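Researcher: Go.
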Amino acid sequence: MKVTVLIKLFKTKMGLIQLLKSQFLSHLIFYYVFLASGLIVNLLQFCTLPLWLVSKKLARKINIRLCYCISSQIVVALEWWSGTECTLYTDPKSYPLYGNENAIAVLNHCSEIDFLCGWTFCERFGVLGSSKVLAKHELRYLPIIGWMWYFLEIVFCKRKWEEDRRTVAESLQNLHDYPENFWFLLFCEGTRFTPKKHEVSMQVAESKGLPKLKYHLLPRTKGFWVTVQNLRGTAAAVYDCTLNFRNKQVPSLLDILNGKKYHADLYLRRIPLELIPEGEAECAAWLHKLYQEKDSFQEHYTQKGCFPGPTVTHPRRPWALINWILWACMLLYPLGLLLVQLVSSGSILTILVSVTVACAASLGGRWMIGQTETNRGSSYGNKEVPSKNN
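Model: Structure:
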C-alpha cells in the first residue's frame, strides 16, 4: 500500500516538474540568461582583439573558454533540462583517442537537434569550446552565436564554389597551429533530410549513375575534399557519425525547451585520415561509399532498434551545468532587484515597458529556434536539376 502511494506521489512530482519546464517563465529565464551572458561574452571577446597582435596562442585559448560559456548553455538544455540520454556505439580500441586528437566528424542530418547532439558529444570529450563547423557566411554578423564563431575562427562559406574553394582552404590552413584539440563537424548532405529533398537528391544520383540511398541525401563531395586536403597533418582521423533517435522520434528544439526527454544513439567509427584518397575524384568516390555504409547502419537500426557493435558509456560532465548556474546567479539577482523596484514604484508605464521587453526577449528566443526548423532549412536539394556541387 505504501509503495503504491509513493509511486503516485513520485508521478505527481514528476508531472509538476514537467509542467514547470513547459511554462513561459521558465523559457524566459533561459532566454534571458543566454542573451545577457552571450552579449557579455561577445564584449569580452572584442576586448581580446589587441591581444591577437601580441600573442595569438593566448588569444585563442581565452576565446576557447569564452565560447564555452555560450555553447555549453545550449548543451545544458539537452543534457540537464530535458534529460535526454545519449548512447555511444564505438570500437573500445578507438575510444581513448576521442578528445585527444584533432578530427573531422561527418554527421548525418535528419532532425533539428543533430548539431546539438554533436555538441553534446564534443562536451563529453572535452572539445566543445574549440570545435568548429562549416557555417553560412551571413551568420558571422549575428550577435552572440555568430560573433562567438567569428572569434573561434569558424569556417564560413557562401555556398558559391568558386569563392568558397579559396576562402575555406585559407580558413582551414589557419588551424594548423591551433593550440588545443578540436573536432570539425561536417554535414556533407548540406541540408536536413526531408522526403522531398530525398526524392530530388535520388534523381540527381540516378542521373550521375550513383547508387541510391534510402536514409540520406547525396553528399556534397567538394567541400569534404577541400576540408580533408587542408587538414592533412592537422587532423588525425575522420569520425563517421551516424545518429538516430529511439522509437522513430523526430525531436525539435522547442520540445527540448519544454523538457521533453529523448534517447539518442550515435554510431561512431574512427577512420585514419591517411586512408582517405588525396585525389578529388577518388575522395568523392570514397565519400559516396561511406554514405552507402551509413545507409546500411541506418537500415540495421531501423530493423533491430540498435546499431551494430558494442556500446561505451561516457557520463556527462558537470562543467556545463556549473557554468549555467553561475551565469544565472550573476544575472538573475540584479534582475530580481530591478523587478522589485519596478513593482514598488507603482508606475504603470514602467511596468508595461518591462513586460514588453520580456515578451520581446521571448519572441527573440523563439525566433532563433524557428530558424532551425526543417521547413526553414536550406533549399539545397529542392531544385529538380543535377547539382554541380558534387
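Model: The longest helix spans residues 319-345.
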